[in-house]
Amino acid sequence: MDGRLKGKTALITGGGTGLGADFAKRFVEEGAKVVITGRRKEPLEKVSEGLPKGSVLVFQGDVSEYEQAQAMVNATIEFGGRIDVLVNNAGIDPSGSIVELDIKQWQKVIDINLTGPFMLMKAAIPDMIKNGGGSIINVASLAALRCIPAMPAYIASKSGLIGLTQSAALDYGYANIRANIVCPGPIRTEMLENSMAPLAEALNTDITGALNTLTRFIPLKRPANPDEVSGAVVFLASDDSSFMTGTVIALDGGACIVDPCGVAVSSAGMNWGGGK
Fold it and tell me: Of 139, 123, 37, which Cα lies nearest the Cα of 88?
């Protein structure tokens, strides 16, 4: 690693599992001091124990509570002297169509996935202004760009996160604060594998077989590994992306370029227009 984040201090929410844990590892490898947060302390401590002593601070908290969001930012400033990078990664993804979804569940998704990033940005931006700038990286999803059946709260929260990110980019560019957003497609994490278990059972296959079905129409025909997302996030956190703000990056293996109608035809062994 080339130490692209040497001297920077970062706050990563949802840092105890999945992508957040991988972000923390890569940030430390690149020279950053990192604060990782989450609602459960045990996974956070497990991540911290696997990294060099003094490089990571664990902060247990809920991003949907403003006082706790402010406390996360304060802890980051105390740990590293400033906050250079904010990665809003915490999120939940319960399913249920509009009619099926309980209103309280809807509100919980919005509170964590959209209001949480808003509150952390609100808490972090003043210190970034004081210190001459910073990088905000909000983690959305391919679902912010394309719809998934029976996921209205998740889709609304992640597509709303794009607008929130670009608003911050517009309003605080004068202060050298950059705000960008990444939209990952399927990532092979424990969460994805757990969600694939019912599909694997329905298809009478294993998790790998279910993932092959899930990704068969994606040009790269596989899910991403977490480090393939982490590399992009490190880039956005680093000075290598110093003239990049308000940008939406689709890390989806090419899923966004696929026409579902064309895929339906080709999956039947035909070319568009009736040719074989």
Answer: 139
